[in-house]
Write a structure and sequence with these properties.
globular; alpha/beta; 7-stranded parallel sheet; 19 helices; 7-stranded mixed sheet
């Protein structure tokens, strides 16, 4: 008997140890990517996912506990909580393309439309011709929406398009049957992968809404920028007053909340939202999200938005995404897949000069978003021992009390200087820094930015007088030709670190101090509105234009829309002045700063010629970058064999030419499609990069009723004898009415794959 007990105890100990070791093995969220779905019935797709997990986990209960999402509309796959060994086992199944760990994404954060020439007052304008985007549906993946904002009112709207299959989910302070309308036609939220990764959302620690409702305002700002209704007499802290509206005020908006306060955006949630949006019937997807370098290959399912975007684009849905906010450093661009329209951020012809008058009657115009009131002449000081803004917090002193403090910084400033000076009894801060285009709005406490030169002038005045004083006036709004357009310092830059022959970004749009709706919970809210900056804000500007183009040209492919936007872009600002790129030093902008240039909506309507592409072209691209036949076949749902020899990535029919490693000479082929007058003749105009020869054959393209497509070859050779950086030029086809221009970027590399730090 005792022997039996001992054996049973030993057996129980072994079982418990096995169970304990199983519990201790850490479960994480993995995405099991299966490529194109094999069933049209979504329920059958989900059932196949359950069966696959069942074979691994052994019970229905374990499957239901493990699975997070089933991707069953645009493609096939699922997200599940798995241990590392389980993920390895499932990755070895023949039908599995790839198993990859979950990824976290970050958000990239009334003058704009007038600045870009989209005016509602002209019957011939793009806005009127496109009926303000009516009947087009845009899907916005972000932090949700504040539905009570007047920018989402549906006055004048007709019925919801009959093709719409989506809906509105209820949750915390969001009633799907009340808060949606004929404008805001969809609202869903996705948190399961986030919960699986970090634990169930604790609303005490993370005060977010478990619903489509937006707590921080980022998604509300983005959605209202795309399609907000007309709202007169809107300003922010009294600045930028005018009529607020989105780029396509008649568009239908569907919101997919994938980003959560203090927890970011789970890639598995983002992928599920894209899958749902494809099923729901959106016409366009807008993603103000980014990852950071190093990036996965864009054909790698670990680059989740690229994979989701591929399936959307394959179904004719353009995907517009943010370039990222990691500028001005080179090779920081994100969302680099060639099928994505990637957006950089610029300023516009509006600024907020803030007068700083010194005691010697010299007035300096800094930049701020300062509501006032005016700060009369008060003391001005510079902490000699801690004049670096970043050191102020560690060296607060009584000398700041009752005075404005000057400080210098070579890095991106934080708001710590404001807090330190305020807590020390100071009355304001003048910060000398490189341009960042990130102004902090303030009330009753001026926080004014100047450059190092002007900061040094102020410092010399302080040191030259015994009792320096300063007067700071409230900011005012200045717009027009006296304010130049620049690529914002924060905007991520090319070249593309994954596929250098693919130009990124594609296009630039205003993304600095964009005025739009916001959640009243936001700390920067002023009457339901705020000014925000980021490529997050530039992305919906382009999405709004894409809505209008889609309305006018519903048969255009995503690549046709991209081509129209890129080839017609401004390479100067709308007033004809050069566009500069801000950074540690200011320079003329090039394609790695702004792609084709600054978006020119009215010209994009009628581009003349387009560089079009199909899914087959993207498949050839995957072959050219060594994506395996098996993986491509899984993605497409049919057997695919790459040709031998493999195609050249330079032949991808993008509206750009980027040659990262020219040694002697290369020849590439492009094809253009006529979408202008039937009988047209175009001649080539070449502006070659410095030290590079560019020859085009033929030099003339003739189109008629039977010939709508023409191909041409471009032979590129270098005269450089050493490795160089990139030089830039352009190739333009013109019929004297249309100028179809693409950027040309060439780097000579005599020594291939050579890193030159000299």
């Amino acid at each position: 008997m005792s022997k039996t007990i001992i054996l049973f105890a030993l057996f129980l100990s072994i079982v418990l140890n096995v169970q304990i070791s199983f519990v201790i093995a850490e479960s994480k969220v993995y995405i099991v990517y299966l490529g194109e779905k094999e069933h049209d019935n979504p329920e059958s797709v989900t059932e196949s996912h359950h069966q696959m997990l069942w074979s691994l986990l052994g019970s229905k209960e374990a499957v239901l506990d493990s699975i997070v999402y089933s991707y069953r509309h645009g493609f096939s796959g699922f997200a599940a909580k798995l241990t590392e060994s389980q993920a390895q086992q499932i990755s070895e199944l023949p039908e599995v393309v790839q198993v990859i760990p979950n990824t976290l994404y970050e958000m990239t954060t009334t003058r704009t439309w007038d600045y870009l020439g989209i005016s509602p007052g002209n019957s011939d304008s793009l806005l009127q011709k496109a009926n303000m985007g009516y009947q087009v549906i845009v899907g916005v993946l972000d932090t949700g929406v504040w539905p009570e904002s007047e920018m989402f009112n549906d006055k004048g709207y007709g019925p919801i398009p009959s093709r719409w299959k989506g809906g509105c989910e209820s949750g915390d302070l969001f009633n799907g049957s009340i808060h949606c309308n004929r404008k805001l036609i969809g609202a869903k939220y996705f948190v399961d992968a986030n919960n699986a990764e970090f634990g169930v959302l604790n609303k005490t620690e993370n005060p977010d809404y478990l619903s489509p409702r937006d707590i921080n305002g980022h998604g509300t700002h983005v959605a209202s920028t795309i399609g907000g209704s007309f709202l007169p007499n809107v300003s922010y802290l009294g600045l930028g007053r005018g009529t607020a509206r989105g780029g396509a005020p008649g568009v239908h908006i569907a919101v997919y909340k994938v980003c959560w306060l203090q927890r970011g955006c789970s890639g598995a949630d983002v992928l599920k939202a894209m899958d749902e949006a494809i099923h729901d019937g959106v016409d366009i997807l807008s993603l103000s999200l980014q990852t950071s370098v190093p990036l996965y290959p864009e054909t790698d399912s670990r680059e989740l938005t690229s994979v989701g975007a591929f399936h959307a684009v394959a179904k004719g849905i353009p995907v517009v995404a943010a370039a990222g906010n990691a500028g001005p450093t080179a090779q920081t661009i994100s969302n680099v897949a060639p099928w994505v329209l990637t957006v950089a951020a610029t300023t516009q012809d509006r600024s907020f000069p803030t007068a700083i008058t010194l005691g010697n009657n010299i007035t300096i115009l800094g930049q701020a978003i300062f509501a006032g009131p005016e700060l009369g002449f008060v003391g001005l000081t510079y902490p000699e021992l801690s004049g670096d803004c970043e050191k102020l917090s560690s060296n607060p002193n009584s000398a700041m009390q009752g005075k404005v403090v000057l400080c210098f910084t070579a890095s991106r400033p934080s708001n710590a200087a404001i807090t330190t000076v305020r807590n020390a009894g100071g009355l304001g801060v003048i910060i000398a820094r490189n341009p960042t285009h990130l102004l902090s709005p303030t009330r009753n406490f001026p926080y004014v930015s100047v450059d190092f030169e002007l900061g040094t002038d102020i410092l010399y005045y302080i040191r030259s007088t015994r009792s320096p004083i300063v007067n700071i006036q409230a900011s005012r709004t200045l717009f027009g030709q006296s304010v130049s357009t620049k690529v914002a310092t924060f905007s991520s830059r090319g070249p593309n670190s994954v596929s250098p022959a693919i130009l990124k970004p594609d296009i630039a749009a205003p993304g600095v101090n964009i005025l739009a709706a916001i959640s009243p919970n936001s700390s920067i809210n002023d009457g339901g509105f705020a000014m925000m900056s980021g490529t997050s804000m530039a992305t919906p500007v382009v999405s709004g234009v894409v809505v209008l183009l889609k309305s006018l040209h519903p048969d255009w492919s995503p690549s046709a829309i991209k081509s129209a936007i890129v080839t017609t872009a401004w390479r100067t600002d709308p007033s004809g002045e050069p566009i500069f790129a801000d950074g540690s030093s200011r320079k003329l902008a090039d394609p790695f700063d702004y792609g084709g240039g600054l978006i020119n909506p009215e010209k994009a309507v009628n581009p003349g010629l387009i560089y079009d592409m199909t899914t087959d072209d993207y498949v050839m691209y995957m072959c050219s970058v060594d994506y395996s036949d098996i993986s491509i076949s899984r993605v497409l749902g049919k057997t695919t064999v790459c040709p031998n020899p493999k195609p050249s990535v330079l032949d991808l029919n993008l509206p750009s030419i980027t040659i990262p490693n020219l040694r002697d000479e290369v020849t590439l082929t492009k094809t253009v499609t006529n979408v202008g007058p039937v009988n047209s003749v175009y001649k080539v105009v070449i502006d070659p990069p410095t030290g590079v020869n560019v020859a085009v054959t033929p030099t003339e393209l003739v189109f008629d009723s039977t010939t709508t497509k023409r191909s041409f070859t471009v032979r590129v050779s270098t005269t450089h004898k050493v490795n160089t950086g990139y030089y830039f030029g352009s190739l333009t086809w013109t019929d004297n009415l249309h100028n179809v221009a693409i950027p040309v970027s060439v780097r000579t590399q005599i020594l291939q794959r050579y890193y030159d730090e000299n």
